[in-house]
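Continuing the batch. This is chain 6 of the set; chains 1 through 5 are on the previous pages. Same settings as before, nothing changed between runs. Recording input and output for traceability.
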Amino acid sequence: MKKIFKNLTLSSITTYFFMLSIKIANASALTDAQKAASDSADAGGLAKDQELSDVIGTIINSAIGLLGSIFMLLIVYSGFLWMTAQGNEEQIGKAKKILQNSSIGLLIVILSFLISLFIINVIIKAENPNV
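Output for chain 6:
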């Protein structure tokens, strides 16, 4: 079970960094040829230039989403441990501790998401007061 959990966590982290690198690559500067193609796509409604605050917001939200997913997996793992304990008090205690810690971690992640959302909105309003 530990190997499965470690493999699942490792694959989740790898996928996260792969997706993050794609998002960062999309936000990088465009060459002249890409700029012309981008202008054509904009005319067709297909592309959108991103501001620095948008890129930072995307990175922060992706990181918080990854952490939230990890804590949810930990909650499911602790529930699995508890259900398969078969009365073993040591395993039940371990499951309770993991459940308690991952619930606290998930609460912290949710609060950090709300704080970052507020800060990003303040930055966007500072950049463009007409919004």
